[in-house]
Amino acid sequence: MFSVTLGFVYKMNVKRMMWTELSDAQLLAQCAVDTYRASGPGGQKRNKTSSAVRLRHSPTGLFVIAEESRSQHENRARALRRLRQALYLKWRDELSPEMLAELAARSDYAVIRDGEGRLRLGCKDPRFWPTVGLVLDVLQAVGARVSDAAKTLGISTGNLIAFLQSDDKVWEQANHLRARFGLKALR
């Protein structure tokens, strides 16, 4: 798990980590689960079974939907993955100035950067979404100024932009943060 590799991140993001580190059963217990019949293609069985799943996470108010499969179990598993991603994308934890000042120098943060000191994590890397959470937390802490966030993270502005662009939802959330602080959207 990412928190084992980056112990300081675990300590920094106590609120979000309370939820993302839970087992599927524990996280599901915190959710209101709705099942319903999804419309669209899928054969004769699709409109006869309630296989679509909507999860509403009570502590945060986040909700996610999965309705791709005809299997309710598969859709529930997809919805749980999406909920964890939504927690990293939309739930911001406050970082103190002390945490920001020491972040780039920490050896346990260095494990998510490559040999050249850049953030190059793919979406399938288990460290990707926790890193997204950390990067967006830093971006919020510096008023959504990309150059200041990159400096805090110890990477180049171009590398930070490339990391944010690696996933459409991450890019959208970064621009949402910038709009909250009255800054122009990144292109």
What does this structure look like?
By secondary structure, the chain is mostly helical. The chain has helices at residues 2-5, 7-12, 14-20, 24-29, 72-90, 97-103, 107-110, 128-141, 146-153, 157-165, 168-180, and strands spanning 31-36, 52-57, 63-66. The chain folds into two domains: 19-90, Double Stranded RNA Binding Domain (2-Layer Sandwich); 94-180, no CATH class. Helices cover 52% and strands 9% of the residues. Helix 5 (72-90) packs parallel to helix 8. The protein is elongated.
Instruction: List the uncertain runs.
Output: 1-13
Order of helices and strands: HHHHEEEHHHHHHH
Number of domains: 2
**Biggest beta sheet summary:** 3 strands, antiparallel
Derived structural class: mainly alpha
Shape: elongated
| Assembly annotation | single chain
- pLDDT average, as an integer? 87
Sheet with most strands: strand arrangement: 1-2-3
Give the termini distance in whole angstroms.
Answer: 33 Å
Can you count the helices?
A: 11
Strand tally: 3
- What portion of residues is helical? 40-55%
Rounded Rg: 18 Å
Approximate strand percentage: 5-15%
